[in-house]
Design brief:
seven-stranded mixed β-sheet; Rossmann fold; 23% strand; alpha/beta
Amino acid sequence: MTATPRHQQLYSSHFETKVVLRRQALLDLPDPLRVLDAYHGQGEVWTEVARRLDRPVEVVGIDKAPGEDSPAVLHGDNRKVLRAIDLDRYSLIDLDAYGMPTEQLRIVADRAPHVPVMATVIQHTIGPLPRTIMRDLGIPAMPDKRTGVYVPIRWDIWWWWWVAQLGYTHRSGVRFAEGMTKWYGLITRPAPPRPAD
């Protein structure tokens, strides 16, 4: 059996879907377009989005792995970086996680409440619900005897309830069920009220 080349291992699942959704999300946003990509990796998705846009977009990535020094990539734990920089300067924050970006979304909700978030949420159809969500929603731990983890059958209901508690009331995206459930899309809060004239 031959090994999978490294570039194929790093290639983003549902690449075309992710590119189309991100490009679409930017179309309604005003200039200048500034994106913070909290799971940047090699930056392939945003490189392709920028190529397909008819206007410039500045992308700043966060990547845990050390790499070449670049003003466009901040190296470190994305949770620490999200807490340390000015998030309000961005038009869109991308949380393309492998799993549920619960800590990252909570940080963004607290620090940049009206910046739209492009999110990827991946979970096994029957799998553990993150303890952060259980704690925030007041769900008592009912551990599985074998694993010690509470296992809800419909984790997505709890996820969306928790997202709504953070204030994100609008969502648009796509869902794939392929052994695990994947949701890709945009979540937003209502626009802040305009001051009276």
